[in-house]
Amino acid sequence: MDQARSTISKIFNGEPHSYTRFNLTQNMEGDSSQVEMKLSSDMDEEAGGNGVGEHLNHNSNNKRAAPQALGRTPKNLCFMAAATLLIFIIGYLIGYLVHRNKDVAPACSAAAAPSDSGVVVVKETGAAPLMDWDDVKKLFAEKFSAATLAPVLRALASESHRAGSPGDEALGNKVLGKFKEYGMDFWTDEHFVKVQDAPASGYNRFTFKSDAEQRPVGFLSYSATGTVKGAVLYGQYGQESDFSSLRDKNIDMNGRVLLVRAGRISLAEKVANAARVNASAVLIYPDLEDFSFDENTAIFGHVHMGSGDPYTPGFPSFNHTQFPPVQSSGLPKILAQTITKRMALDILRKLGGPILPDGWRGYHRLGDENDTITVEVRNVLAEKKITNVFGVIKGFVDADRYVVIGAQRDAWGPGFAASTVGTSVLVELARAISDMVKNEGFKPRRSIVFASFSAGEYGSVGATEWLEGYLSSLSMKACAYINLDGVVTGQSGFKVAASPLLHSLVGSTLNEVKSNQGKSLLAQFASGNWEANVLEKLTEDSAAYPFLAFSGIPSVSFRFISDSPGYSYLNTMLDTLDKLNAATAGRVPQLAETAGRFAGHMALRLVHDHLLRLDLLKYDRIIRSQVAQINRKLSILQRNQPQVLPSTLTAQWLISASGSFSRAARSLTADVQNSDLEDVEMCRLINDRMMTVERSFLSPYVSPRDSPFRHILLGSGPHTLKALSAHLDSLRTDLPDPDVDLFRNRFALATWTVQGCANSLAGDIWSLDNEI
């Protein structure tokens, strides 16, 4: 009605009284186009009633003179009455039509966002013409193929491109040149990081009993340095369960040098577990049961229980940053070194002591106090300049919201599976999607950022430093991160690790993407329950993990795998094209194509749809499950050991917070299903609410230096719900002084973190449902 009244007022009264400027749409650069529009005289009407705002009306004197000029004759009064009636009828009809159009607006389902047929008319809301999803898939299939990938794989292969080396810099320049060639906006990000390398002169070494000195070639970055002497103790894989088995045999691990096999858990976890049992050093070797290479092959890695530069924890290592003298809490305090299978055999065959626990694999004896060994680690700390390379395809509606696709660029040696395949897929995805936008009329709603990271072998250093440098922006504007590291290491299986928010999107993508054999990935690798057959845990040694657990960005990592023992050459100098061809029957380009299609389909779906495909109810089920487990353990403890925890401490607060999250998630899901897809601003508000979910799980009560992975469900540290459950288990033991106050503090902080997630998800402050 107001719009109709304003329009007719302009017809009868001539020029408007004031002008303003407002944003009509966003251009490709993210700026706002300014368009001068006429406004109604609502402000003048308000001013005429009570005098408020008269100073804003530039024609107030003319307005007061109008009644005098018009006169109040019967003829004029009749004319005014007729005009008023006409205005009312026209306004009623306009209001009815507008209301009817809103009622028939299309709805969106959280499970399957609809796609429009034909071209949508551009409206003042700034909506870009939307290409049908089936047409997007067909167009992408034409642009991305194994034939175009094969020459890129050859062009980007390099024998030496360790982080910060000339080979790494040359490879980064090649990637940057490709982004320039495709007409993308591009930039680089330099960091000066501290990494630990093998001694430039001399060797790391060890001596077992009176045997000759051994000098291994491989090394573990971020080990403690120095010399220790102790008795060897075989610890199988160095898992917590392995050390529990040793404790059950009453074996003292204090000061022992643990000899453990590589595999099952990360190198950093093995060293951290050994430090917790007070070992003095760890020697890690690749057993032939787990690795298929010869017994003299050296392995490389790092032992930082975290990611990024451990000497700038929680903040970026830019050159101008004033670094405080701090270190990451994840740096080990004990020595760690890799040795070859041959070196390990020479030790294992001579060990005495107790026999192996039941179910263990290895040689017959664990070692005794007479099996002494001297270990010396002389790694050197060096500062290196690393360069991250970026290119962007900007969106046409929400250009400041983006999906990030990233790949590690460096490697210990040739690193063909570790980095070359992922970097090649990254470059080809950038070319294919750029071509779709420039030449085929595809207009993504959101932007896609392509990132080539360096220093991945030292613990996702390049990726984490970028996150730390721009965390406040990335955590709010990045919709998802898609990781391309190690996407092809075999052909017999397919595994995906992802945020629960992305599980539904993963499932639909598996069904849409076909392998070179003509079957969908779902049919080929995930018959039956695809979540049980395909999904795996996202681990700390994945570059996707800091995006999820440190920055709160929904992330996904995936890979083709081989049957056990799998591709053995990662973290060695033997990771070459020939070795990967042998593991894939020469189908590297074809498998890389399928991996690229999987990543591309996920990215395109996230930038194509009006509403983001994020499964809000998945986290609801996870929270309720973990809260129920904590409640059950708490009840058992209070019933059986009432002296440990007072009966006044209940899980009711945590249960109420869980209920708040459940209601908020279901309410937002209903808003998604009932949304008007042509209302761009409403879609943006809903998407922003969904994007808050992941980052709201980052505990605000812990320091990024002490616990960088602050996610209470998928992170690591005492703030997580799993740690809270484990704390209850420890209180049930016969410890002399159980730390009940510490538990109550962590219990309260976890409760309020869950409630904060619910509040963030609910949106406006007046929509909050806080029953605690």
UniProtKB/TrEMBL annotation:
GO terms for biological process: intracellular iron ion homeostasis; receptor internalization; transferrin transport. This is Transferrin receptor protein 1. Belongs to the peptidase M28 family. M28B subfamily. The keyword Secreted does not apply. Residues 388-591 form the Peptidase M28 domain. It is found in: Cell membrane; Melanosome. Keywords: Cell membrane, Endocytosis, Glycoprotein, Lipoprotein, Membrane, Palmitate, Receptor, Transmembrane, Transmembrane helix. It comes from the Eukaryota. It is a single-pass type II membrane protein. The chain crosses the membrane at residues 77-98. It comes from Salarias fasciatus. Cellular uptake of iron occurs via receptor-mediated endocytosis of ligand-occupied transferrin receptor into specialized endosomes. Endosomal acidification leads to iron release. The apotransferrin-receptor complex is then recycled to the cell surface with a return to neutral pH and the concomitant loss of affinity of apotransferrin for its receptor. Transferrin receptor is necessary for development of erythrocytes and the nervous system. Acts as a lipid sensor that regulates mitochondrial fusion by regulating activation of the JNK pathway. One of its GO terms (cellular component) is external side of plasma membrane. Coiled coil: none annotated. InterPro entries: PA_dom_sf, PA_domain, Peptidase_M28, Peptidase_M28B, TFR-like_dimer_dom, TFR-like_dimer_dom_sf. GO terms for molecular function: transferrin receptor activity. Homodimer; disulfide-linked. Residues 41-68 are annotated as: Disordered. Stearoylated. The keyword Lipoprotein applies. Residues 235-292 form the PA domain. Residues 651-761 form the Transferrin receptor-like dimerisation domain.
